[in-house]
Specification:
By secondary structure, the chain is α/β, with parallel strands linked by helices. It is 47% helix and 10% strand. It has 17 helices and 13 strands. It has a 7-stranded parallel sheet with strand order 3-2-1-4-5-6-7, with helices on both faces. A 6-stranded parallel sheet has the order 10-9-8-11-12-13, sandwiched between helices. The longest helix is centred in the first third of the chain and has 49 residues, at 117-165.
Length: 536
């Protein structure tokens, strides 16, 4: 695991600040208590001695911190040292003068405490005042030094370690996701980026994702805040990939307009994130097929045709095609609903109806194996948690017809469920389009009660069997899909519309277009689709 110097600074900085603040608070409390304590000269002597010891703690920790930073920087950056004008190390002359003044004042207080109580008290007050000046000076200086040192250290780490170790990285993957507990967007694309055979590294904006990724890949991972982003990209980098529309992306896009900024997204669906106007800020949009390009135009998000590149969905390489024979006596159904979105135009989730839908499928006259996997975001919503409790009970119920229910958690790869399933039940989401690659039948929920005209805005639905609002017709449609399957021809047409690389091996177009863009030789011929004409 490669260690980022930025992390060392963050880890070491907190104890120093706490020790200084703690010592300062204790001294202030002693000072406030002094007038109310009936102390003899001997006790005042002990009091002054204790104050000296307390005051020395933050001074010592400050020196030790600076020394630690010097050692850590040398060990991480090799023989290269950060220039003095970037981040000076050690105490300034003013700091040293304050330390001497504090020491002299305390020594004077000790001597005076043996002679005159009043003079000792004045000396003690003076020494504490000088210490406060020293502490305030160093706290502010720590903050200033920390900003410069982190920037310089990250730059040193990047150029001295990442660039040298990787023979000059050619691209980076930028990831920010405050609402995710795991870096799933990165993991989705990581195997295909690594397969390019070109040196790169990953930039994360949240510390929780740094440690999660570092344990899963040998690719270097750097934690960076917005002001540091320009520093962590060496001149050899030409391209940055992204997998979501996070606000954190803008700092890098605006800070480095000279680079190619490629939006991959973390799924292709008919939901608003897949036709967001935010997409306009990227240099290129990688899409699975012409369905994705149509989607922008249909929603009046006008993007020049040359910004699109049809590359398919590399992830579908692991999806097995539909069997030519019919399912066995027990039909296997995978049910993967989306999560309850934040906005009305994204509320496609059938989660509140899921228990009823599952119960209907499992209570029929044929045995059905139901594999249910909720969206990871569903665990964060209190209402969703209640629905999940009902779903667990329905899945675990014993059935006289031999039906079986399974609840799959985050660790289960959806593609494994696609491969085991004969039929999919899902909402309007990227799950439908990924499953569509298999050619197997799928059922689409309709919790918003869209009519036929409204459903035209969601072309991925057109190749599936449509449930009613509460899923009352679920079992009927499962039987139909597993038997005669009258939607097959339309489903295969929808599949061709969704995937523009069906005449290529999965990931072939993605690899070719990615390398061409990174190396600066992309001709833009992956798609000549004119989005403007669609909009008109």
């Amino acid at each position: 695991m490669k260690v980022n110097f930025d992390i060392l600074l963050l880890i070491r900085q907190e104890p120093v600040r706490k020790s200084m603040a703690g010592a300062l608070a204790l001294l202030v409390m002693l000072l406030l208590a002094l007038p109310f304590l009936p102390l003899t000269q001997e006790v005042r002597f002990i009091y002054a001695l204790a104050a000296v010891c307390l005051a020395s703690l933050p001074v010592a920790t400050t020196y030790l911190t600076f020394a630690y930073r010097e050692v850590a920087r040398n060990s991480l950056a090799g023989s290269e040292r950060i220039a003095d004008n970037q981040a000076s190390i050690g105490l300034t002359l003013m700091d040293k003068a304050l330390v001497i003044a504090v020491a002299v004042s305390f020594l004077g207080s000790l001597i005076l405490s043996l002679l005159q109580v009043t003079a000792a008290s004045v000396g003690l007050l003076l020494s504490i005042a000088l210490y406060l000046a020293f502490a305030i000076s160093n706290i502010s200086r720590l903050l200033i030094l920390d900003a410069h040192a982190k920037e310089a250290a990250v730059a040193d780490f990047n150029f001295a370690r990442v660039a040298n170790n990787l023979r000059q990285p050619r691209f980076a993957f930028h990831f920010s996701a405050l609402d995710l507990n795991t870096p799933s967007h990165v993991l989705m694309w990581l195997p295909y980026l690594e397969a390019l055979g070109i040196p790169f590294f990953i930039i994360v904006r949240e510390r929780k994702h740094l440690f999660g990724l570092a344990a899963l890949t040998s690719t270097p991972v750097i934690l960076s805040s917005a002001p540091q982003l320009k520093l962590v990209l060496p001149s050899s980098v030409t391209t940055v990939f992204y997998a979501n529309n996070a606000a954190g992306n803008f700092a890098l896009i605006n800070g480095r307009p000279d680079l190619q900024h490629i939006q991959l997204l973390h799924g292709d669906s008919d939901k608003p994130p897949s036709f967001s106007a935010v997409s306009k800020v990227f240099s290129k949009l990688f899409v699975a097929g012409r369905m994705a390009i149509d989607r922008y135009a249909r929603n009046n998000v006008i993007i020049p045709a040359e910004k699109f590149a049809i590359v398919g969905r590399p992830q579908v390489a692991r999806i097995t095609p539909a069997r030519t024979d019919k399912p066995s006596d027990m039909i296997t159904v995978a049910y993967l609903p989306t999560w309850i979105g934040y906005h009305e135009d994204a509320k496609f989730s059938s989660l509140k109806h899921a228990a009823g839908i599952i119960d209907k499928v499992m209570s029929g006259d044929i045995p059905v194996r139901v594999m249910f996997k909720p969206h990871p975001m569903s665990y964060k919503d209190p209402a969703s948690s209640r629905y999940l409790g009902d779903i667990r009970r329905v899945l675990s119920r014993q059935r006289s017809n031999g039906s079986l229910g399974e609840l799959h958690q985050d660790a289960t790869d959806p593609i494994d469920l696609y491969n085991m399933a004969d039929i999919l039940i899902s909402d309007i989401s990227s799950v439908i389009i990924d499953f569509l690659y298999s050619g197997k039948p799928y059922l689409v929920t309709n919790p918003s009660k869209y009519d036929d005209a409204e459903l035209q805005a969601y072309p991925s639905v057109l190749g599936g069997y449509l449930l009613d609002e509460a899923g009352e017709n679920t079992l009927e449609l499962v039987k139909l899909a597993a038997g005669a399957d009258p939607m097959r021809e339309k489903r295969m047409a929808t599949r061709s519309h969704a995937f523009g690389d069906l005449d290529h091996a999965p990931a072939e177009l993605f690899t070719r277009v990615s390398i061409d863009i990174i190396e600066g030789r992309y001709s833009g011929d992956a798609t000549t689709f004119e989005v403007q004409k669609l909009a008109s």
